[in-house]
Amino acid sequence: MEVVAEITSSLNRDLILKKLAKLKTLVDKVDIPEAPGGKATAHSLAVGVLAMQQGLEPIVHIRLLDVNKTGLKSLLGAARLLGLEYVVLLQGDPPAEGSPVRDVTTEEAIAEAKKMGLKAGALLSLRREYAKRLEAGADFYLALHFSHKDQLRGLPRNVYPYIIVETPKNAPLIQRLRQTAVPPQRAVELAEEIDGLVDAVIISAPGDFEALVEVLKQIKASHR
């Protein structure tokens, strides 16, 4: 099972590089959201290139609410040109500035990405009916609201659950995001429990990078 760390974008290049350097020996890939909460920052494709320069394999997100079909195909072409192999296509939260674009469905975006020779991913929620989403034709799926291995029963191995870590530092943010989260030690235990059930797991600790690194260190130690 691959271990993937979520890293958020920033306009601070040095900060991103420092974070990537700390993750380099701990994970197989990095997952890079695009404009979380609809708030603009440096594009995930740019962070993905920085990750590759540090020897990390990136999974970059592309928000469909921000682009029409021409814009999407330009971004997919850029990903291909830059050597970014893994892309996640999602509608995303409503943009904080400007109007949402509802020109391309997730399924259409997945098809376009695969035409480009990219490995296309999609999001699904384990709190909702997801059978139809699994028919979208994606190469892999990122699963939200995960807290117990039984939720993976009957799901294919290419469903990668997010394990979101909650700490005193990031608890207010987690509550605003309304995401399912677990304490650091439980995150380590969950990763151990699902090893062998899925091809990858994504570890996320929004707003607490130090906690993310510590959890990843413990997961790596448990896999030795």
UniProtKB/TrEMBL annotation:
Keywords: FAD, Flavoprotein, Oxidoreductase. One of its GO terms (biological process) is methionine metabolic process. One of its GO terms (molecular function) is methylenetetrahydrofolate reductase [NAD(P)H] activity. Pathway: One-carbon metabolism; tetrahydrofolate interconversion. Its cofactor is FAD. InterPro entries: FAD-linked_oxidoreductase-like (IPR029041), Mehydrof_redctse-like (IPR003171). This is Uncharacterized protein. It comes from Pyrobaculum calidifontis (strain DSM 21063 / JCM 11548 / VA1). The lineage of its organism: Archaea, Thermoproteota, Thermoprotei, Thermoproteales, Thermoproteaceae.
